[in-house]
Amino acid sequence: MADPNISQEQLKALQEKIKQMSPEELKEFQKKQCMFCQIIAEKVQSKKIYEDERALAILDINPANPGHILLLTKEHFTIMPQLPDEEISHIFMVAKSISNSMLRSIDAQGTNIIVANGIAAGQRAQHFMVHIIPRKENDGVNFVLPQKAMQDQEIEAIGNRLIAALKGEVQEDKTNPTTQKGTNLDEISKLLGAKR
Fold first, then answer.
1. Which of 17, 36, 51, 191 could form a disulfide with 126 if both were Cys (CB 3.0 to 4.6 A apart)?
2. What is the tens place of the pLDDT at every residue in 47-84?
3. Separation of alpha carbons 52 and 94, rounded Å
4. Pick the CATH number of 8-144+180-193 from 2.40.30.10, 3.40.50.2300, 3.30.830.10, 3.30.428.10
5. Which pTM value belongs to this model?
């Protein structure tokens, strides 16, 4: 993890160095800074629940509920758009199995399966992961999605932009890190100093 006592000059130098890195160098740099890559490499202790050649599931040390699992890709990816389709498919098949096992083994009445994709979405780790949280009625964990009123023309405009993007008809938005092949420099800097 990055040193929290880094000076502004050191941070600027690091940011400049990161700007000059190739995508491969950047990925390797991120991997060396990543606590979850250290867990995958067994340099940091964890309670493994599941492991295969592409994924590792561990118990969260600060769980929302007992049995909260972090499902990690073994290869370092920061955000979901970086994952190849076959990796996404595999991870969510594993998530499905883990969710099903929670329902059978620890008397969960349901599960939340969550991906915090990017800092604005609450992602605090620099490694892509899926949270699988066992749920029971009145367990005190509240996920409340606000319901905002929108005008019909706003809904139509947003819908059309999303449809066009899915068809590949929209140019990449350079200001949005989720549409880029790499990761936004500001997001990298924030994640380097962040904890999960």
1. 191
2. 999 999 999 999 999 999 999 999 999 999 999 999 99
3. 10
4. 3.30.428.10
5. 0.74
